[in-house]
């Protein structure tokens, strides 16, 4: 029951954050993140793995927010930013969200001890470097991008799959 209520809270939170700066960050483990990806049916879901300490990640985020603003009202689109910062740095992540005015939903993946297990489950070629952006459509991976992604690449990948 506790897991179900947490799951419902995650779904509710994800619908609230699209298009506005969030004030709290949910800590999730791999299984919770995987469920969220699978439950975003009939959408193109852009999942970006990043960290506040990753210069290329921080560099690409303004373009990601421009694209998020462009598509935020499309019911077939959603962006999810998955922070790989440490759980103890949660407040730092919240302050970063506010400072950078991140309008996509942000979750903090608190599952570092098992990263060698979950990283290859996202993509076998992924060695753990960030930024990484994975596109899903109806819960199925359709595109994997390791490294920085330009605004045009991001927008074109979304448009091609909407």
Give an overview in words:
The longest helix has 17 residues, at 55-71. By secondary structure, this protein is α/β, with parallel strands linked by helices. It has helices spanning 2-17, 30-39, 55-71, 90-100, 115-122, 151-161, and strands spanning 26-28, 44-50, 77-83, 105-109, 132-137, 140-146. A six-stranded mixed β-sheet has the order 1-4-3-2-5-6, with helices on both faces. It has a single domain (2-161), classed as Glutaredoxin. It contains six helices and six strands. Helix content is 45%, strand content 22%. InterPro entries: AhpC/TSA, Thioredoxin-like_sf, Thioredoxin_CS, Thioredoxin_domain, Thioredoxin_ResA/DsbE_sf. Keywords: Redox-active center. It comes from Chryseobacterium edaphi. It holds the Pfam family AhpC-TSA. This is TlpA family protein disulfide reductase.
Main features:
162 residues, 6 strands, globular, Glutaredoxin, disordered N terminus
Describe the structure in brief:
The chain is α/β, with parallel strands linked by helices and 162 residues long.
Low-confidence stretches: 2-18
Looking across the biggest beta sheet, what order are the strands in?
1-4-3-2-5-6
Helical amount: 40-55%
- What's the shape? globular
Set down the secondary structure blueprint.
Elements: H1 2-17, E1 26-28, H2 30-39, E2 44-50, H3 55-71, E3 77-83, H4 90-100, E4 105-109, H5 115-122, E5 132-137, E6 140-146, H6 151-161
Parallel strand pairs: 1-4, 2-3, 3-4
Antiparallel strand pairs: 2-5, 5-6
Keywords: Redox-active center
Domain Thioredoxin: 3-162
InterPro entries: AhpC/TSA (IPR000866), Thioredoxin-like_sf (IPR036249), Thioredoxin_CS (IPR017937), Thioredoxin_domain (IPR013766), Thioredoxin_ResA/DsbE_sf (IPR050553)
């Amino acid at each position: 029951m506790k897991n179900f209520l947490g799951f419902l809270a995650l779904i509710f939170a994800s619908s609230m954050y699209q298009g506005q700066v969030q004030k709290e960050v949910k800590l999730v483990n791999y299984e919770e993140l995987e469920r969220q990806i699978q439950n975003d049916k009939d959408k193109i879901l852009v999942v970006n793995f990043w960290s506040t300490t990753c210069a290329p990640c921080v560099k690409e985020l303004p373009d990601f927010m421009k694209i998020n603003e462009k598509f935020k009202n499309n019911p077939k689109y959603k962006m999810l930013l998955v922070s790989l910062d440490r759980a103890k740095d949660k407040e730092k992540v919240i302050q970063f969200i506010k400072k950078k005015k991140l309008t996509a939903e942000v979750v903090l993946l608190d599952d570092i001890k098992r990263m060698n297990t979950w990283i290859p489950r996202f993509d076998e070629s992924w060695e753990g470097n960030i930024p990484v952006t994975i596109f899903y459509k109806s819960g199925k991976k359709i595109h994997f991008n390791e490294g920085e992604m330009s605004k045009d690449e991001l927008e074109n990948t979304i448009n091609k799959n909407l």
